[in-house]
Amino acid sequence: MTSKIFPTAQDAENAFYEALERADLEGMMAVWAEDEEIICVHPTGPRLSGQDQVRASWAKIFAAGAGPRVQTTQQVAITGMMIAVHSVHENFTVEGEARSQIPVVATNVYLRTAAGWRMIVHHASPAPAQTESAPRDAPPKFLH
């Protein structure tokens, strides 16, 4: 069903964020693998799996029209022959608002398929509040 070929995982990622900003459901779904094993977690939302749940979630998000501007920063990309994992900070701004919304940390996983690179996982969570760094020898305050 998808006709767009993404030669690199970064091309797929760029198309994902462009579709997000335009509230373009077809553009968004063109990035996703045509597979029932895809996973999407929106900030503070449940885990969604499969084409139907993922499409329905984006349709609901896009129902309000064009979305906020999003700038990704602090990208860390790990790419192999068949899979790529991107960790990014998503910084959203809404036109006309003085300050940006809560920053989000996202992990995007891409699979190399016969039709090019496709997203198989998008997991986004609110970024933790910026705090002073703990001393390196301090024990972690969480297990996971």
As a percent range, the share of helical residues equals 10-25%
What's the mean pLDDT score?
86
Principal-axes shape call: globular
Briefly note the CATH topology name.
Nuclear Transport Factor 2, Chain: A
Main sheet: strand order: 2-1-6-5-4-3
How many helical stretches? 3
Biggest sheet overview: 6 strands, mixed
Distance between the termini: 38 Å
- Low-confidence runs (pLDDT<50, min 5 residues)? none
User: Which radius of gyration do the C-alpha atoms yield?
Assistant: 16 Å
The beta-strand count equals: 6
Helix and strand composition category: alpha+beta
- The quaternary structure here is single chain
Overview of this structure, please?
The chain has 144 residues and is α+β, with helices and mostly antiparallel strands. The protein has one domain (9-126): Nuclear Transport Factor 2, Chain: A (Roll). Helices cover 24% and strands 34% of the residues. It has a six-stranded mixed beta sheet with strand order 2-1-6-5-4-3, with helices on one face. A hairpin with a 3-residue loop joins strand 3 and strand 4. Helix 1 runs antiparallel to helix 2 (25-31). The longest helix is centred in the first third of the chain and has 14 residues, at 9-22.
